[in-house]
Design brief:
With 289 residues, this protein is of the alpha/beta class. The protein is 36% helix and 25% strand. The chain is globular, with a radius of gyration of 20 Å. Bound molecules: uridine 5'-triphosphate (UTP).
């Protein structure tokens, strides 16, 4: 079982980040000096993924422009001797083989994944949500691929969250297999308190077998009237083996304002150009609060 392809669903409306996301896709908002989606593509590439499909919609063409060449700009940078900027602009366009498909109606995450059926074909594939950013030593999707390959199974990335927070995610019923790896027995999307299986929530990374497409194709709308990926995964884990990896990373949901600001601060502190300056600025600011 070799995972070579990844799907990045990025066709959501981004209503939690309005009004900024009315015309700028939330995946294109800058995290320090790169758009959010570039971090996700870099994570996939670092884990050995070669081909990436981004699921977009009619308001998101800035994404395919970003990963294209821009000869006039490159020529200008070259003439001005701006070698570092030139190589960064080029690097983004050469990161991976990136393909695009449109989700013509915003019918939910499960529906967006289903749009990847032809791209994926008959092999296991990775899914990385377009607004979930990870800071880790080992790429999170790589941690999942290792487990999926070892167990010949689908795999979901999980972390423990508080009992109050689990209502925003899917809660997973798990049995331990080894350190940080579990067998998945069941799951529920946005559970009410009496429905919670565990505090392990699925957080933005998956490795799936193509069997998921047969399930998604016939899935009825679930929570919020959308085709929910969790409902598809619930069916998949009953039909074939699925494991969960308690992945090692700090995860940021950049699709909401607080998550986006946390990521901005942490990534700026870690950035060679801004880190030392921001540390001093925060200290100075803290004295006046
Ligand atoms: P979210 O719920 O986080 O994204 O979906 P959203 O719908 O853009 O955000 P809000 O709630 O309106 O602020 C999780 C992931 O699924 C994708 C999103 O782009 C995000 O990566 N998604 C969601 C789709 O691609 N299509 C959809 O129909 C829904």
């Amino acid at each position: 079982m070799k995972v070579r392809k990844a799907v990045i669903p990025a066709a959501g409306l981004g209503t939690r980040m309005l009004p900024a996301t009315k015309t700028v896709p939330k995946e294109m908002l800058p995290l320090v000096d790169k758009p959010v989606i570039q971090y996700i593509i870099e994570e996939a590439v670092a884990a050995g993924i070669e081909d990436i499909l981004v699921v977009t919609n009619r308001a998101k063409s800035a994404m395919d422009d970003y990963f294209d060449y821009y000869p006039e700009l490159e020529e200008r940078l070259s003439r001005a001797g701006k070698e570092r900027e030139l190589s960064e602009v080029r690097r983004a366009a050469d990161l991976a083989n990136i393909f695009y498909v449109r989700q013509k109606e915003t019918k939910g995450l499960g529906h967006a994944i289903w749009r990847a059926k032809r791209f994926v074909g008959d092999e296991p594939f990775a899914v990385l949500l377009g607004d979930d950013i990870m800071r880790s030593q080992v790429p999170v999707i790589g941690q999942l691929i290792t487990a999926a390959e070892r167990y010949h199974a689908s795999c979901v990335g999980v972390q423990q969250v508080s009992t109050e927070a689990i209502a925003k995610y899917s809660s997973v019923k798990v049995q331990p297999l080894e350190e940080r790896i579990f067998q998945v027995e069941d799951m529920v999307e946005k559970p009410r308190p009496e429905e919670i299986f565990s505090n392990y929530a699925i957080l933005g990374r998956y490795v799936l077998t193509p069997h998921i497409f047969d399930i998604l194709e016939h899935l009825a709308p679930g929570y919020a009237g959308e085709i929910q990926l969790t409902d598809g995964l619930k069916a998949l884990c009953k039909q074939e083996k699925m494991v969960a990896v308690d992945f090692q990373a700090r995860r940021y949901d950049t699709g909401n304002l607080k998550g986006f600001l946390e990521a901005t601060i942490d990534f700026s502190l870690a950035h060679p150009e801004t880190g030392a300056w921001l540390r001093d600025y925060i200290k100075e600011k803290a004295q006046t609060l």
